[in-house]
UniProtKB/TrEMBL annotation, chains A, B:
It comes from Companilactobacillus zhachilii. Pfam families: Pyridoxal_deC, tyr_de_CO2_C. Its cofactor is pyridoxal 5'-phosphate. The modification N6-(pyridoxal phosphate)lysine is found at residue 391. GO terms for biological process: carboxylic acid metabolic process. Transmembrane segments: none annotated. Residues 472-612 form the L-tyrosine decarboxylase C-terminal domain. This is Tyrosine decarboxylase. One of its GO terms (molecular function) is aromatic-L-amino-acid decarboxylase activity. InterPro entries: GrpII_AminoAcid_Decarb, PyrdxlP-dep_de-COase, PyrdxlP-dep_Trfase, PyrdxlP-dep_Trfase_major, TyrDC_C. Keywords: Lyase, Pyridoxal phosphate.
Length: 623, 623
């Protein structure tokens, strides 16, 4: 192929397949890559003699070791077969944000393991270090960060979140450090002014310190000083638990956590966000930063990033500033749907044509919500983003990601320069200087690099893949909303909790005519138990797997009340019961979105649910 | 095999081999494991139809995608071949702590990637979660932590170090939190007494808080309070740079870092350690903890862990207490040499017999230093250890490790209980609650589990493997100490900087009769440049690779002066030059230790060095 026309490539070729449909191709490519690696070993100083002779290979000691290895690997295989989650099924795993991963990512990762590069520094893995730099640029650009952006492949979203707060903390502390080391640069500024400089202002200030830069850094938050002056960190109640960890480990402290209430769509209530900030400002308490979640862990909800930024603009006018970080660990790849092949975020009114051109379904296109579009669009104006290739990038674990809008943010984590020189050429300096991780498996960078080169981060590549799942979520949400089951004369109806923003569905089961929240919770939880190893028995024998969660007043406030009342249940029961139990499915499977596959899977899933309710009716005292 | 007799197993079977000697076996086992995985996919609800049909596979779109995948993988292969470090060579890579990794570890890791388990929680990867628990116990026991120990497979040593400080910080803050929430439990205790409780006392105190435990935790260091009351963190000057990171991120702060001077053997000067602690105590400044390094990054030096503990015992008598953490990321596996098949640390006087029994070389056995033995023995009495399977465990990246003596330490990082119940059985709770990492590739736990089951962490398994490298270091140190090269009438002599404690050698090159440190530095650095891509050209065409470092007064104080003077150089030049340049080699290769292989490699390495000096003489103006 001369020019690659990505839209004419069948994404189905990129997976081993739920039934191993492409297993032969996978084996062929695996063997090819192994051979290429072995050839490298053999021909490095090709005349060097072998270290293991043929005669050694036929000794009893060698054979003992081979037997030991085979036996241990058999045991491993047995354990993995018995103790893995069958998320490679096309249609029977409606649960966590996991599915089969991209074949080229697996091949690249496995290949990289043979080389065992340590991507911590160019000298430990020249190839993967450069790949990671490219991938970092990919992630930055995907999020709309232009030429000053930077990114890296983090172990996971938790570490990316922790690192984002670490950077925000160190950046925000620069004005205090400058005041100590080069007071003339901040002369006349009040403490409040020092606390309310933007990321850019802080970094420009650091740049002005010239040869005192490292002295300033040593007086930044890394010294342990001023941590309690930096202000509050605001995170939605839908947050991942890594935010608690982040506040703990960084010493910013959970005392500085403010949890933002969400609306009945599980997005941050931006009026309340504004009033919470205002209350703090009124008390002269600074805001270190605000987190928007794009693709919340339990709901897939997409916060109004655009409104967050508008609120920041408003506060800037009164001299108040703070970081905006986006936790898009799960939802980040959703942005690819809106990006054209030139890397531009498309105007809303061109989407429908673009979708037609790229074969993305347009009928019943309710998943194209304007507010979700606006949120994605606004990400480019934020300061940093967590985005995990090992979630919607369909790359194996571990491959999280962090992107920052201004590459200088990372330099506050180290005394060293961002580039080193090797062979007279600038190469990325030890990435370990800018990350919590020291050693780094080359595999994760190699895997993400490979798939990014094959499947562009725009509508022609990942956009088409993500769209499959958005469409699947749309269709199954429609199926589940109002679906009825008859069991021993009783009618059970399922209800979808909210319109999906992304590819996740939350839903509940309620007995018709029984308006008790407790009953609904019991029934929903029972279905979960019978669709998991809890009561469903061996994982491998299940014909449907789901995951569950529950929304409690402690975490979610009154967010679920409107939904509960819409079912005819008294809203006050939410508080007396203390929770609403839900089923939760990330519709990540790329195999259930089109007419043919939906028509195949919908009745099978329905039948499986019907069977569970019959079992529940038989064994549990709740139906 | 009924009873496995590990000592009769040939370790050479466990590697693909420097020349791919066991590549056929590797391919056979790879294919077997892939088939077993594909069989699982096919037979999960075996009657479900394929998602990719044979007719789809012959469409142009499918073919386009296959071509795209093959082309991209070819590019990946080209980049990896051109940009990897040839550390799989048996004898020509004398540099970083990297070598080929164990075949079963590669197989297990690659296999696990197919299942893509997320070891964050039992529900994401039942098999690997249980494996990680076993491996954690392995690491704890290897370090002499008995039944209360705990460990996990961290991303790497940096994260393990950060986590150790995080735990130490949170544990040390418990007394202050208790004073706030349950003051009656610490009634009458002074601030100094609260600052000087042992780990056990802190954790016992937390246990006494009963149902207020989470309230106490919320007032611990995780709140952001009291961080600056916890005291100083003492780390040897040979420390890995992750310790700066650890002080930065945890908010303990670099202001609380005290760098411990080392002696001319690059081990902490324990007299100075004692006096530094005493000086702080005299000023009423508490000590949060002291780090001992076992296998330092640049020297492989082993600190006197036993003396650290004796010093702690002395201070305990005056009411002063602190954590002792061991950074054995690199050196930790050295302990396996001293552990018998029952898991007991062997008495010193039984070692020689044991070594004979297990085929470990005993002639010229200078590597059996009593002080190194004592240091390893004492680790069991410390509080926590960093130990990386991806270094001397010969497991691919990422597989670092942390072990703690008292499992309750980890519970200070979370509000949650350590165990959950699934199917009525206690299973490990979400490990993500206790670690910086959230998502976790099942592969690293699976790989370490597999090799630990095959190659016991005692003298019958890893002990024999580590011993190969200790012996190689011994032999090459002897070769390099005093080795002479003649170039254009000049004689160059190499000198080993110190007697190795472990498997690392540091050495320099000096022109005979030229007693200038600058000349020695220039010559040593030139040899590095010609044995690396810096001036050696393409990595793949090098016949010898080394790594370098330098010791500067800023970091190392006067540690190198005695050695410099022993070469006839004026010691003051160390300060005027500002550094001593060294070559540095981890002798991790398992293929160069015995008579036959040493006799094969020694002349080849010597010839390569001779060739480099000829090039240097020709091209550089320093000979």
């Amino acid at each position: 192929m001369e020019k690659k026309d990505y839209k004419d490539m069948d994404l189905s070729a990129y997976f081993i397949g739920p039934k191993g449909e492409n297993a032969d191709l996978f084996k062929e490519l695996t063997e090819k890559l192994i051979n290429e690696h072995v050839g490298y070993r053999q021909n490095f100083n090709s005349d060097d003699e072998n270290s293991i002779s043929e005669s050694e290979k036929i000794t009893p000691e060698f054979n003992n070791a081979v037997v030991n290895m085979k036996e241990t690997l058999s045991e491993l295989s047995r354990k993995m077969r018995g103790g893995s989650i069958p998320w490679t099924t096309a249609g029977r795993y409606l649960a966590q944000m996991d599915n089969e991963t991209l074949m080229p990512a697996i091949l690249a990762y496995n290949f990289a393991i043979l080389w065992n590069g340590n991507g911590v520094a160019w000298a430990g893995s020249p190839a993967s270090t450069l790949m990671e730099e490219e991938v970092g640029q990919d992630l930055a650009k995907l999020n709309g960060y232009k030429k000053n952006g930077w990114g890296y492949v983090a172990t996971d979203g938790s570490i990316a979140n922790v690192s984002a707060l670490w950077m925000a903390r160190n950046v925000a502390s620069i004005p205090f450090a400058v005041k100590e080391v080069c007071p003339e640069l901040v002369e006349g500024k009040s403490e409040w002014e020092l606390q309310n400089m933007s990321v850019k202002e802080c970094l420009d200030l650091l740049d002005k310190t010239g040869d005192k830069k490292n002295d300033v850094k040593s007086r930044s938050a890394r010294s342990g000083q001023n941590l309690q002056k930096l202000g509050k960190w605001l995170v939605p109640s839908t947050m991942h638990y890594s935010w608690q960890k982040a506040l703990d480990i960084t010493g910013v402290g959970e005392d500085n956590l403010i949890v933002l209430p969400v609306d009945d769509h599980y997005r941050v209530d931006t009026d309340k966000l504004e009033s919470i900030i205002q209350e703090n400002v009124d008390k002269h308490i600074p805001i270190l930063g605000v987190v928007a979640v794009v693709g919340s862990t339990e709901e897939g909800a997409v916060d109004h990033v655009d409104k967050f930024l508008k609120i920041r603009d408003k506060f800037r006018k009164q001299g108040v500033d703070f970081v905006v970080h986006v936790d898009a660990a799960y939802g980040g790849y959703g942005r690819t749907v809106y990006i054209d092949e030139n890397g531009e975020f498309m105007p809303y009114d061109q989407l429908e044509d673009a979708f037609k051109k790229y074969g993305i379904f347009t009928e019943n296109n309710q998943f194209l919500k304007k507010d979700v579009y606006n949120a994605y669009k606004a990400i480019g104006e934020t300061d940093s983003v967590t985005i995990d290739p090992h979630k919607m990038g369909y790359v194996p674990y571990d491959a999280g990601g962090l992107a920052i809008a201004d590459t200088r943010m990372k330099d506050t984590l180290t005394y060293y320069a961002p580039y080193a020189f090797q062979e007279g050429v600038a190469v990325p300096a030890s990435i370990g200087q800018f990350t919590l991780e020291g050693s780094k498996a080359a595999g994760s960078a190699a895997a993400v690099w490979t798939v990014n080169r094959m499947i562009p981060l725009n509508i022609s590549g990942y956009g088409r893949l993500v769209a499959r799942t958005l469409f699947a979520a749309r269709r199954f949400a429609d199926l589940f909303d109002g679906q009825k089951f008859e069991v021993k004369g009783k009618t059970i109806v399922s209800h979808v909790v909210y319109e999906p923003d992304y590819n996740m569905i939350d839903w509940v089961y309620k007995e018709e005519g029984n308006n008790s929240l407790k009953s609904m919770n019991d029934l929903t939880q029972a279905l979960f138990e019978y669709t998991s190893s809890s009561k469903g028995g061996d994982l491998y024998n299940l014909d449907l797997l789901t995951s569950d969660s529950n929304f409690s007043p402690e975490t979610y406030g009154d967010a679920p009340v409107k939904f509960i009342e819409s079912l005819g249940i008294d809203g006050s029961e939410y508080h007396t019961e203390g929770k609403m139990e839900i089923l939760r499915a990330s519709m990540m499977s790329p195999w259930i979105y089109d007419d043919k596959s939906f028509d195949y899977w919908a009745p099978r899933i329905t039948k499986a649910i019907q069977g569970k309710f019959e079992l529940i009716s038989e064994h549990e005292n709740i139906l």
